[in-house]
Amino acid sequence: MYRIGKTFGFEAAHRLPLPPTHKCSRLHGHSYRAEVILGAEQLDANGFVIDFGELDPVKAYLAEQLDHRDLGVVVAVPSSENIARHLYDWCTNGGLLLPNQVRIEAIRVSETESTWAEYGPDEKGRR
């Protein structure tokens, strides 16, 4: 199995539905990183899983829909876990067109340098 990943950045705000004493219940922002991880059993004729340029729609989606936004407007509960699921669903429901042999292994979202959340299909390839 071959795997590749590309990381994209965006700036956004959110608040989480937590008790008022929790700091994340207040509106705050992050410099998010979203990583798209792709896999394939075989490489294409160029020796790639896929050309990284084919991932430009992800960059455009993040810039248009998530960058400098209140993520609670886009994702009901804007935790990193739910943002990763949102991006996975967007990619797999037509947002990112991939050759048949390439699949999305996971989407990983980071709010900080030391934390991340990941969403992908289970071992049987189901969501």
| CATH topology grouping | Tetrahydropterin Synthase, Chain A
Under CATH, the homologous superfamily reads 6-pyruvoyl tetrahydropterin synthase/QueD
Number of helices: 2
Helical content, roughly? 10-25%
Q: Biggest sheet, open or closed, and with what strands and sense? A: 4 strands, antiparallel
* Gap from first CA to last CA: 20 Å
The CATH architecture comes to 2-Layer Sandwich
Describe what you observe in this structure.
The structure is a single chain. The protein is built from two helices and four strands, in the order E-E-H-H-E-E. The protein is of the alpha+beta class and 127 residues long. The chain has a single domain, classed as 6-pyruvoyl tetrahydropterin synthase/QueD (Tetrahydropterin Synthase, Chain A, 2-Layer Sandwich). Strands 1-2-3-4 form a four-stranded antiparallel beta sheet, covered by helices on one side. 23% of the residues are buried. The mean pLDDT is 94.
